[in-house]
Specification:
Layout lengths: L13 H33 L2 H37 L3 H28 L1 H7 L5 H32 L3 H25 L3 H25 L16 H53 L2 H19 L3 H28 L1 H6 L10 H21 L7 H12 L3 H27 L1 H31 L1
Helix pairs in contact: 1-2, 1-6, 1-9, 2-3, 2-5, 2-8, 2-9, 3-5, 4-5, 5-6, 5-7, 6-7, 8-12, 8-14, 9-10, 9-13, 10-13, 12-15, 13-14, 13-15, 14-15
Length: 458
């Protein structure tokens, strides 16, 4: 088979290239999102509701460790894209080797700590009472597989930086399909309970890892590395860390926002209002998958052409990505604006014989969801600009503006707003904070990105 190269990133028309890069990324994100939903349904039906609670306790811990792999992947992928664009193949290989070494060292260290303090961490994240007995076996088994997940997330981003989105998409689909298949086998047929759920998850990580090893060891990748490339190099580590810290900060901010919102909403309306946000949170993950897919597809295009000093193509890719994502964001908003109650109904049980408190919560959710969803998604048509702005600076290796723009929406605007507005406007103050923060972040990014385009790309 002829070797696939990254040359297309610098030669294909931008519109065609962006579609080619973004569609597989969007499909991969969609499949992984659906996996989370269906997996929860399987576990809840075959083990019980406490099993879902146990998984929700464990996943934030394990995914924090895996997010380190993602951060290393994003930081190194920016270097690799620019190096390939500048025809610096050896630098790209050295970066990839350093990514692997760094991911292994960091994740193994975190796994050791996580296993030593298993009980403390489960309790700290809410695994109390009867939930603890479900959470501990799941946590222990899954933690052994976390290094494979971290390496998979890192490798997935790297293969996309080479301009090979289809391989990255397959690497995301493999764990999703295999996890659901193994759930049926281990939980339903073998009746292994939480251990079965854990082994299904761990094996799915491992299978995706094996697939990526195959891709990188075959002629499908330009990053065929040797033992010398695994030796850590301080200059590369410094750049990986500075750019990867943007991704880590974003993940940390997402966790902080969820923590704050759950507490604020509980004080305002109890469990029912938290349930409203839970549905909206699911929709933020599912509905925006095409917009996030375009951002994923845009990263290697911008990085490669910036490294090749093809600044006209970089500028065109920015405008094209923002346009495509804005159109898709508008369509998403229209759908949720017109049918918020119908969307929410998909998440609520309608079977007969429900307890009175669950019936009351369902009625409350349906009464409040329309206003909440319309405000939360109100600025969806314009969020493409801050998303692409942050992605652009990360792609070209400018960590400081990437960090500032990435944190602007949630850190600088949303958190202060959600502390202040509910004191005056109650529940509606929470929901309007989303839209106001999105608009402010868009304006800041527009000013900063316009300045950068005039200074660097013109």
């Amino acid at each position: 088979m002829a070797k696939i190269t990254s040359e297309e990133l610098g030669t294909l028309p931008i519109s065609k290239l962006l579609i080619k890069q973004s569609v597989p990324a969007s499909i991969g994100i969609l499949v992984m999102s659906l996996n989370v939903l269906v997996d929860s349904i399987f576990v809840g039906n075959w083990i019980g509701p406490l099993a879902i609670a146990a998984i929700s306790v464990v996943l934030p811990v394990t995914f924090f460790v895996a997010a380190l792999g993602m951060a290393i992947g994003v930081g190194g992928a920016s270097i690799i894209s620019r190096a390939l664009g500048a025809d610096q193949i050896e630098k790209a290989k050295q970066t990839f080797g350093n990514q692997i070494t760094l991911t292994v060292l960091v994740t193994l260290s975190m796994v050791v700590v996580g296993l030593v303090f298993t009980d403390h961490l489960i309790l700290a994240f809410g695994g109390k009472g009867a939930i603890f007995d479900f959470a501990k076996p799941f946590y222990t088994v899954v933690f052994y597989g976390v290094p494979f997940l971290a390496l998979t997330m890192m490798g997935n981003i790297v293969i996309r930086s080479e301009g090979k989105p289809k391989y990255a998409m397959i690497a995301m689909i493999i764990p999703s399909v295999s996890n659901l298949t193994l759930d049926y086998l281990f939980i339903y047929l073998f009746d292994w309970g939480m251990e079965g759920a854990a082994w299904a998850t761990t094996f799915s990580y491992f299978l995706s890892f094996v697939y990526l090893v195959y891709i990188f060891r075959s002629n499908r990748s330009e990053l065929m590395i040797g033992s010398a490339h695994f030796r850590l190099k301080s200059s590369i580590l410094k750049e990986i860390s500075s750019l990867g810290s943007v991704t880590l900060a974003r993940q940390a901010m997402v966790s902080l926002v969820v923590l704050l919102l759950n507490n604020i909403l509980f004080d305002l309306g109890g469990e029912a209002l938290v349930a409203v946000y839970a549905i909206i949170g699911r929709m933020l993950m599912f509905a925006l998958f095409p917009v996030y897919g375009i951002a994923q597809g845009f990263l290697p295009i911008a990085g490669f052409n910036y490294g090749a000093q093809k600044y006209a193509r970089v500028k065109e890719s920015i405008y094209t990505a923002i346009t495509y994502a804005s159109v898709l964001g508008t369509l998403v908003y229209l759908g949720l604006f017109l049918f918020p109650v119908e969307v929410a109904s998909l998440f609520l049980s309608s079977k007969e014989g429900l307890p009175a408190n669950e019936i009351a919560i369902n009625a409350y959710v349906l009464e409040h969801i329309a206003t909440a969803m319309r405000w939360v998604f109100a600025a969806t048509p314009v969020i493409a600009l801050p998303l692409m702005g942050g992605a652009y600076f990360q792609a070209i290796g400018k960590a400081v503006p990437a960090m500032l723009l990435t944190l602007s929406r949630q850190g600088f605007f949303f958190i202060p707003l959600v502390f202040i507005l509910p004191q005056f406007y109650g529940e509606i103050g929470v929901w309007t904070s989303f839209a106001i923060a999105d608009v402010l972040a868009t304006l800041v990014t527009w000013w900063y990105l316009r300045k950068e385009i005039r200074k660097t790309l013109s």
